[in-house]
Amino acid sequence: MHTNTLKIINKDHFRQNLNIYTRNAFFKLPKIDNPKILDVGCGTGVPTLELARVSGGEILATDIDQDALDYLDEKIKSEKLEKQVKTLNCSLLDLDFPDESFDIIWAEGSIFAIGFQKGLEDLRRLIKDNGFLVVHDPYQKHVEKKDIIEKSGYRLLDSFMVHHRIWWSQFLRPYEKHIKDLQEKYIDNPQVQQALEDELNEIKMFKNNPEDNCSIFYILQKN
């Protein structure tokens, strides 16, 4: 989605309603002074910026969507976080960093793209000894994932669910109303209309199967 369209739609304004869960996950970690954090699959960076605010650390935010990164870069500048947060166009499959580069790796809604087990295994080498990985993932196959966590060389410190009712009430319901308002406002803009239709289709998928849309945070420590 083009950067200007991202700004018009302003999805981040509504996604920020869920930042409380990003904070909750972060504060389940032991305190680390000035942590080095890799945020994989950051998108437009709503959790990224929240991490910057609460961690005081150095964050490298990666994604393959350059328009999303451009939008995040603008927000970084506007919040004067340039010294704290950097962005990099980089795939989850091509994280070419030295071993044990990061105190914390943060993956909110991103490793599903390559699979839970592969994600945990690929990221492990980048985490410092006894460092941490925080994953926000669909709740499905939770029991199987707990087994994968142990077999992949991590200790499960904590976990908590974000129920589908929370996703609906705190994010998607107000966002859906916003989208419909924008459809009227930008009725003569085909590019924006298409983007809005795509957003509504995602919301429709959620409404058709709400129980499948619970999510869970896993707070892991590298063994």
Strand and helix map with partners:
Blueprint: H1 3-9, H2 11-15, H3 19-26, E1 36-40, H4 46-55, E2 58-63, H5 66-78, E3 85-89, E4 102-108, H6 116-124, E5 127-138, H7 142-151, E6 154-162, H8 164-185, H9 190-208, E7 215-222
Parallel strand pairs: 1-2, 1-4, 2-3, 4-5
Antiparallel strand pairs: 5-7, 6-7
Helix pairs in contact: 1-5, 3-4, 8-9
Describe the protein.
- GO terms for molecular function: methyltransferase activity.
- This protein is an alpha/beta fold and 223 residues long.
- The chain has two domains: 1-162 and 213-220, Rossmann fold, CATH 3.40.50.150; 164-206.
- Helix content is 46%, strand content 23%.
- The protein is built from nine helices and seven strands.
- Strands 3-2-1-4-5-7-6 form a seven-stranded mixed β-sheet, sandwiched between helices.
- Strand 2 (58-63), helix 5 (66-78) and strand 3 form a beta-alpha-beta unit.
- The longest helix has 22 residues, at 164-185.
- It starts with a helix and ends with a strand.
- The model has no long low-confidence stretch (mean pLDDT 96).
